[in-house]
What does this fold into?
Amino acid sequence: YLHNVEESLVQADIAIYLSYKFQDLNIAQSDMEKLVKSAGKLFIYAATLVKYICDPDFPELASDKVQEMTSMSTTPDRNQTKVLDQLYSTILQNAISERLKDKQRREYLTIVHTIITAGRPLTCSVISELLGIQQSHVEATILRMQSVLYISDQLIYTFHASFADYIVTEARSNAMHCNEVEQHMLLSHASFHQMNNLRFNICDLPSSFLADKDVPDIDKRLKNISDTLDYACTYWGYHIARSNGNEKLMKAIKNFVENKSVFWIEAMNLKKRLPVCQENINYVLQVCICKISCDQN
It folds into this structure.
């Protein structure tokens, strides 16, 4: 493990790495030494630093970013978490500037928090539909955050788990903090909102006497279950289990069970994911049992 390796040895490797990545920037030796020193023994810091400074969409800002990073205050006894936190904070503050209107800042943060708390990697379009935010705003957020986020096969990922750890820890991320319970509550209600689109025979099958595999154009018909609805049907219980199970959510669960649960099971059966139903039911039972226990006490 790197934390057990002599710092001077790791720093030498980081110096080689940064020198190679920044070879076209004409960085002064003194500034290069500051950048290397700022990474300590964290290669993830060095890699994130490169992504931040060498942003392909804003190459003209590279020199300014070097000056910004080399002028950050440092203390000899800071721990490794603080080193990375300072970099992540700088990236977030630049991406979600205080110059933005409050509504815009909340939107950007909600998008980032959704990426961190989602049950699986999502596309921009799914995030847009879940949150009711324009897809162009979601795409703009990812573009601003591409030092820590990236898209592969249209799905959004974080470059490193340390970013999620940072943003869900209030003492580290401060105003950018993601309250996981509140975010899962938001996504629980967003999932129920999407599942209002469930209906009888959602894929318009021609006959109940045909096995699904024998239905003509079954793959085309399955597209009636959108990616966003598919996510909601798969992960609503996951989000509920991580929320606080308040009265509003309990009412939403009751309404879903009474009005949409049969159609939900039908949709999951069509997607060949019936075990997902049991997983979600187990999640909800845990929440309900906990709620009853708390009410009795």
User: Anything to note?
Assistant: Strands lie at 149-152, 155-158. The CA atoms of residues 168 and 179 lie 6 Å apart. Residues 180-296 form one domain. Confidence is low (pLDDT under 50) at residues 74-78.
